[in-house]
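Sequence design from tokenized structure. All designs in this work follow the same two-part layout: the structure record, then the generated sequence. An example of the structure record is given first.
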């Protein structure tokens, strides 16, 4: 009998702290539903005190998710804990995750609090959280650089106050597997009452050790891992959920625990998160990268054909690669379209949304003979990224690119309902289109990133474009997808501008 390994996904909170990865409420709901299908035990849906919009998104997720615990982060203060408590109220199973920094450098320079005050704030936060739910988690931020004696003291105090999960974060990604495992082992051994709680690990990837450190902690008794899809997260990211889950499953000979994740949902979840956040997955990324199961060399191909296990330790279909199948075509009807969307876990909120998506599907099927699941996901993601409150919309785009001539773009936009037009030259058609848009909008935003990925194979594939813009310290990602990559680029640029103009003030939990 194996222990349960609790998978705590923080894509919607720590993952969202990646530059430009801020998501709308609808986007968060789509990811939350998919995380539930994946079988995640706890979904950290956000940081309720960040803004009214963040609280609303957590509340909405808590209202629809039934099979995963829905959690909100809260700093150890009354306002945050109450905001978290209200946000998770509709949840069938809700958790408050409260935290405070415990390292000397954070206590002195960031919090400007004495250690006694930190312990007191942690205990008060846990007690208050218990008024909303009996499922309370406490984290000691920067535990990696905290003194062992102080960690033991604060953990004992919050366990006595009623915390059920104790999370030990390597906030700055500083540890190494042997040290991190040892820290977990000593904490479990030394803290009185440690057998009454679940020990959790939360590792950042600054030295590329997040997964290795998390697994080392699991080997020493941690039974919850905090992780994100595709390893998304602050700076170099968090431990990647798919890598942790597959390592534990594949090395059953070593681990005495296992998760309840439906691994066949891993690849679809990875794609969805990548599409929504605009963070492409590198081809050689373990488990979910396009090359993860591709065998280039002749020797490997020969071996795999003779006996798969010569070079493969996991089966591609077990992590969801087989979902990459041809689904629909030009003649497919509305019912087939609706059925496939629901098989993919995509729920469109209204008949109008379904009709709009179906119309876009028909347009796409005219341009592209074979429609794959990835095309459907991109299509719905593109629809969801357009909001009724968006200020800018693309009315039309004409580009001219010819040997020996300077590329030229003519763009017509709707700005809050009024049509405006501009012409510009550029070093290429995309550059000309962006210049024409900028001439009209005058956002002054800096272009931090422009990337194009093909969603499926073939020259008729849709190009998925990500544009990252920065203005006054704010960073946003915009996405667009089309078989015409200039069109997709203009859509992505406008999507980013709409986010930039629509952003509300948000507090960052760790600053
Ligand atoms: O990295 C960290 O310390 C965190 C805490 C808020 C848990 O994300
Ligand atoms: Zn973190």
């Amino acid at each position: 009998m194996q222990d349960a390994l609790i998978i705590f996904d923080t894509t919607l909170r720590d993952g969202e702290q990646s530059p430009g990865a801020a998501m709308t409420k609808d986007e968060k709901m789509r990811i939350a539903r998919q995380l539930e299908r994946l079988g995640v035990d706890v979904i950290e849906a956000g940081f309720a005190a960040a803004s009214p919009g963040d609280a609303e998104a957590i509340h909405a997720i808590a209202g629809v998710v039934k099979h995963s615990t829905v959690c909100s982060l809260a700093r150890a203060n009354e306002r945050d804990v109450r905001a978290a408590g209200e946000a998770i109220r509709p949840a069938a199973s809700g958790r408050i995750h409260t935290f405070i920094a415990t390292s000397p450098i954070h206590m002195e320079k960031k919090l400007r609090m004495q250690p006694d005050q930190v312990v007191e704030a942690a205990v008060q936060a846990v007690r208050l959280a218990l008024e909303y739910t009996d499922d309370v988690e406490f984290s000691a931020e920067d535990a990696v650089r905290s003194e062992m004696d102080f960690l033991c003291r604060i953990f004992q105090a919050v366990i006595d106050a009623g915390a059920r999960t104790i999370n030990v974060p390597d906030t700055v990604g500083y540890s190494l597997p042997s040290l991190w495992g040892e820290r977990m082992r000593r904490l479990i051994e030394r803290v009185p009452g440690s057998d009454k709680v679940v020990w959790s690990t939360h590792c950042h990837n600054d030295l590329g050790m997040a997964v290795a450190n998390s697994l080392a902690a699991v080997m020493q008794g941690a039974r919850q891992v905090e992780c994100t899809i595709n390893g998304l997260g602050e700076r170099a990211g968090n431990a990647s959920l798919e890598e942790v889950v597959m390592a534990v499953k594949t090395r059953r000979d070593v681990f005495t625990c296992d998760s309840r994740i439906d691994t066949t949902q891993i690849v679809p979840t990875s794609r969805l998160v990548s599409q929504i956040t605009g963070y492409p997955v590198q081809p050689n990324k373990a488990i979910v990268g396009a090359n993860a199961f591709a065998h280039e060399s002749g020797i490997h191909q020969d071996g795999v054909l003779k006996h798969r296990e010569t070079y493969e330790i996991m089966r591609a279909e077990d992590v969801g690669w087989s979902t990459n199948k041809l689904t629909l075509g030009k003649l497919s009807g509305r019912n087939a379209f609706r059925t496939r969307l629901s098989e993919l876990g995509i729920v469109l909120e209204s008949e109008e949304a379904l009709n709009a998506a179906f119309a876009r599907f028909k347009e796409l099927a005219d341009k592209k003979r074979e429609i794959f699941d990835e095309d459907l996901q991109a299509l719905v993601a593109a629809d969801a990224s357009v909001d009724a409150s968006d200020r800018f919309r693309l009315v039309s785009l004409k580009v001219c690119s010819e040997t020996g001539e300077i590329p030229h773009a003519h763009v017509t936009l709707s700005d809050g309902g009024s049509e405006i037009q501009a012409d510009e030259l550029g070093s290429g058609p995309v550059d000309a289109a962006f210049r024409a848009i900028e001439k009209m909008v005058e956002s002054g935003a800096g272009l931090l990133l422009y990337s194009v990925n093909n969603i499926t194979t073939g020259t008729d594939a849709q190009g998925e474009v990500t544009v990252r813009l920065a203005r006054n310290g704010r960073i946003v990602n915009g996405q667009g997808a089309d078989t015409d990559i200039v069109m997709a680029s203009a859509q992505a640029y406008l999507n980013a501008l709409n986010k930039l103009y629509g952003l509300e003030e948000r507090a960052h939990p760790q600053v």
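Residues 14, 99, 139, 141, 169, 171, 202, 204, 509-510 surround 3-methyl-2-oxobutanoic acid (ligand 1) (CB under 6 Å). We note this feature because it recurs in several other targets discussed in the main text.
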